[in-house]
């Protein structure tokens, strides 16, 4: 039932990094990257350390201090540059582009094979920072946004995510693939050009491990799938439903943590984006756009948000593809800060009921 995603046109940047051009029709005109870039490292430059008190994995990546920070528009590294002198994208124009991050948190150098970890000291466990970090440019328009894309263009982004998910999950050095978008300076974005990222982690992240533990415990008690039950319960309740189509439902979750929050589930149980059918991917693109446009309409201005996709390997015992979208803005002129309770204890306190959040979003969805 899965769909065939068209293969991108691949090229290389000046330092050897891979760049992929996704197009809805025709062959993109790709130029030559003429920048004088330093050679890529042959050894990992980041590490992953284990917190002995929590078991959490922490990526140590000091080289990222040198990453591009709020450059002038003329030097935006995500705008097309046919001359190949000032941008990561040596092309006249493009639809969707994915390339290896120049300042990655995780990277596996070509031909590198990690030695067995030395765990003689159980309190100080360190591994090389293997994996993959990619940048996904949603469009060539510097002043655009995901919400401003056409449905066909949004579907192309979903196809790009699907392609990269399948490719990365096939790698032995990657345990989890995370597609996400940070939007807005309040979130910490330093490049305003519309883009997202993909992280291929060499370990299972804490959030994913927690979700899967809860799902396994739910199945042990009920014999049913947690995520299927959550979706069915939200549909039956109806109080927090935002959008429902033939293949996709969006809702505010029962215990929403954020002042603006919405989750998106396909109706069919799939593990990741690459398993969607054409009809499901089309519906997903349409619903996703409705939500992002509602976010921007809520306070009459571009809303800072994080869009987070939960994905799992095909055939996994637990896990259900879904997206979480949330914002730290709690009113037109106030932000939700993760202060003592949230940051110190991961214990969220929310100022709005999930039902009120749903009502506000339904008002602007119309």
From TrEMBL:
The gene is galT. This is Galactose-1-phosphate uridylyltransferase. Keywords: Carbohydrate metabolism, Galactose metabolism, Metal-binding, Nucleotidyltransferase, Transferase, Zinc. Signal peptide: none annotated. It comes from Tsukamurella sputi. Binds 1 zinc ion per subunit. Its cofactor is Zn(2+). Its EC number is 2.7.7.12. The keyword NADP does not apply. It catalyses: alpha-D-galactose 1-phosphate + UDP-alpha-D-glucose = alpha-D-glucose 1-phosphate + UDP-alpha-D-galactose. The keyword Membrane does not apply. Belongs to the galactose-1-phosphate uridylyltransferase type 1 family.
